[in-house]
Amino acid sequence: MDYTSDFKRGCQKTIESLKEDLKSIRTGRATPSLVENLVVETYGGQSKLRLLEMATITTEGPQALLIIPFDPSVISDIEKAILKSPLGLSPNVQGSKIIIKIPSLSTEQREKFIKTAGEKIEDKKNQIRNLRDDVRKKIKTSFEKKETTEDVKYRLEKEIDNISQEFIQEIETIKTKKEAEIREI
Whole-model pTM? Predict the structure, then answer.
């Protein structure tokens, strides 16, 4: 059994998931990823779609987003979803498009978003530690069943520990970058 490549795959999925999660945390700059994963209940509640699946989302300069729905009849549903979201944004409907001005973040808001990012990051670090512990248990079980030697067991454990440290370091780098983005004025 290839413990290390399975473990690396699991860690990589965790990192990708973290990057997606962090996209939804506001910085002072307008970016489509801020709203693209908002779930919009539409067509009388019959359908729940991500905004990305319903509209074109582009930036209008550094402080505004332009949302143009593929189906103009869902514009009020999109507006409701944006208002209900925890992002604190005010959509401005103009005919068949929505413009969202991204206000500058206050120091208090920045700190709140940094805390939220920190919680998501800590959660992903724990996921990697859990993956590492699971793999170590499998290696130990394999050793106890005499499927691997003691040398192989120690080498694999050391390899798994090194890989988990690399991924946790990558998460720290992502954290530093995201905090800098949030603090940027």
Answer: 0.71
The secondary structure of 117-159 as a DSSP string is HHHHHHHHHHHHHHHHHHHHHHHHHHHHTTSS-HHHHHHHHHH
Angle at 133 between CA 129 and CA 137, to 5 degrees: 170
Q: Which of 128, 138, 113, 103 is nearest to 29 (CA)?
A: 103
Coil, strand or helix: which one is 129? helix
Q: Which of 53, 86, 101 is the last residue of a domain?
A: 101
Residue 7's φ and ψ, nearest 5 degrees, are -65, -45
**129 vs 28: which has the higher pLDDT:** 129
CA distance 70 to 171: 36
State the number of CA atoms in the 13 A half-sphere of 117 facing the CB: 27
Cα 147 off chain centre by: 39
Domain of residue 137, residue span: 3-22+106-183
Diameter of the chain measured on Cα atoms: 71
Report whether pLDDT(21) > 90: no
The predicted-structure confidence for 59-101, as pLDDT tens digits, reads as follows: 887 788 999 999 888 898 999 888 888 777 889 999 999 999 8
Residues 66 and 135 in one domain: no
Q: Say what percent of the chain tops pLDDT 70.
A: 98
